[in-house]
Specification:
Helix 3 (114-124) packs parallel to helix 5. The protein is globular and about 65 Å long. It has nine helices and twelve strands. 27% of the residues lie in helices and 23% in strands. The mean pLDDT is 89. It has one domain (4-20, 29-311): Rossmann fold, CATH 3.40.50. The strands form two sheets. An eight-stranded mixed β-sheet has the order 6-7-8-3-9-10-12-11, sandwiched between helices. Strands 2-1-4-5 form a four-stranded antiparallel β-sheet. The protein is an alpha/beta fold and 318 residues long.
């Protein structure tokens, strides 16, 4: 784990469970969406969290900002335990940590104009809005003429720029970005990623970047956290680090490589993710893993350091 003086966000033992409703002839069941997660987010850096749909990464994002309440564990923001804060204290601290949603409609009231949407964070915090909206629009590359437009009059890329501007309104130091380009066309994705890169560099922001796209995460992030069925299975200390967990290897092999000099045959991930309501007793990836042994099927590996990597695997590769 990173030194606490260089770490903006520290997560320890974070766990969140969800229950299913009892059916007419069945019984209620419980799934663990995030299981005993430890995570450090270094200050001023971009930390990526990647995994297939249903791996728990979006739930983790919401737990980190306390948009969801954890069942157990701890989140420290710049040394402050979020669970110890009153509602008023948490609201004040939220100036420093904001969320950018995958779907821009999640952060924009359809009845609002762009100007209304960008004024709202200032109003909620009781701050002066003078000049703030125009500055935010310029910061994210929005034409001032769009200030009077409603969300339905904007393109997907423009709506996402409004969402990013809204997140930046209170000058936070930490942004959680949950699949911020997933709903956009490829060309628009590149523009939004370029915008996020520039903002992070110019404003010294810390990002927790959530994505299912390992290729994108390797491009943008300084450090990569790989999740599978609610648990961290590998932490790559740098985007160019070689994967050692079989799941990370499979994710990389299934990712298209745009550089012709490094291009290889793309191999699709095979097999199904286990039922989260009835997980296997050992390694959750064992049923899909070509290197699985009897030990893997009965004994769950714990996250431990292997050189510069953190890894939860009985048979690491490389």
């Amino acid at each position: 784990m990173a030194d606490s003086t260089d770490t903006l966000v520290q997560v320890r033992g974070l766990t969140r469970r969800f229950g299913s409703r009892r059916g007419l002839f069945g019984r209620a069941r419980t799934m663990t969406a995030v299981a005993d997660v430890d995570l450090d987010v270094p200050r001023g850096r971009v930390t990526g969290v990647v995994g297939e749909s249903g791996c728990g990464k979006s739930t983790l994002a919401r737990l980190v900002l306390r948009l969801l309440q954890a069942d157990s564990g701890q989140v420290l923001f710049d040394g402050t335990d979020l669970a110890t804060l009153s509602a008023a204290e948490l609201r004040r601290l939220r100036r420093r940590m904001q969320f950018v949603f995958q779907d821009p409609y999640s952060s924009i009231d359809p009845r609002y104009t762009v100007r209304d949407a960008l004024r709202e964070p200032f109003v909620v915090q009781g701050l002066d809005t003078a000049g703030g909206v125009d500055e935010l629009m310029a910061m994210v590359g929005l034409n001032p003429s769009l200030a009077a437009a409603h969300p339905h009059q904007l393109s997907g890329g423009q709506k996402q720029r409004v969402g990013i501007a809204r997140a930046l309104a209170l000058r936070p130091s930490f942004l959680v970005l949950d699949e911020p380009t997933a709903s956009l066309d490829v060309s628009i994705q590149a523009q939004i990623i370029g915008l996020l890169e520039g903002l992070q560099r110019d404003l010294g922001l810390t990002y927790l970047f959530i994505s299912h796209d390992l290729g994108l995460v390797r491009y943008l992030c300084d450090r990569i956290v790989v999740m599978y069925l609610g648990r961290i299975v590998e932490v790559l200390p740098a985007p160019g680090s070689a994967a050692r967990h079989p799941y990370t290897v499979a994710l990389m092999d299934s990712t298209f490589e745009p550089d012709p000099a490094r291009r290889r045959v793309v191999t699709r991930l095979t097999g199904e993710i286990p039922d989260a309501f009835n997980p296997p007793p050992g390694c959750a990836y064992a049923a899909r893993c070509p290197h699985a042994s009897d030990r893997c099927r009965t004994e769950r590996p714990t996250l431990a350091r292997h050189g510069e990597h953190e890894l939860a695997c009985h048979h690491p590769q490389g």
